[in-house]
Design a protein that fits this description.
5 helices; mainly alpha
Length: 144
């Protein structure tokens, strides 16, 4: 039996197939239009997922409709990163507060400088989380 050539292997790997739908074959079609820049973005996303363009668009639309995924703007990525960083900062601050409580409970001395420094970090971290939360809330669209 002849071995297929490498070019033929590459062609076979590039073939994208849509999975069979559990509800049976899809028979309803509608047209989606994009400008060139939008089409390029959608094509890149489909390529990343190794899916045909129409299959990618259909799967993405269904995922959003079923609320399996929530569309997020590119700007929201920065806001989410801020929330993640703030969460880590709050975790470290909580550790500091636990250490202070431990020292106070064991009749140790805590200086005013230590308390002020920890409380300032708490205040700043809470402010960052509040700002990021408000930004996320502004971007949410009400569901009708």
């Amino acid at each position: 039996m002849d071995e297929p050539s490498t070019a033929e292997d590459a062609r076979r790997r590039r073939v994208r197939r849509r999975e069979r739908e559990p509800g049976g074959p899809r028979s309803t079609r509608f047209k989606v239009t994009y400008n060139r820049a939008e089409l390029a973005l959608v094509e890149q996303a489909a390529d990343r997922e190794n899916q045909a363009l129409a299959a990618y668009v259909a799967r993405s639309a269904l995922a959003v409709a079923k609320e399996a995924v929530v569309p997020v703007s590119v700007d929201a990525r920065e806001v989410l990163q801020e929330l993640i960083q703030s969460r880590g900062q709050l975790r470290r601050i909580g550790n500091n507060l636990n250490q202070i409580a431990h020292v106070l409970n064991s009749d140790g001395d805590i200086t005013d400088e230590h308390l002020k420094a920890v409380l300032a970090r708490v205040h700043a971290a809470v402010r960052h989380v509040d700002e990021a939360t408000l930004q996320v809330m502004r971007e949410r669209r009400p569901r009708s």
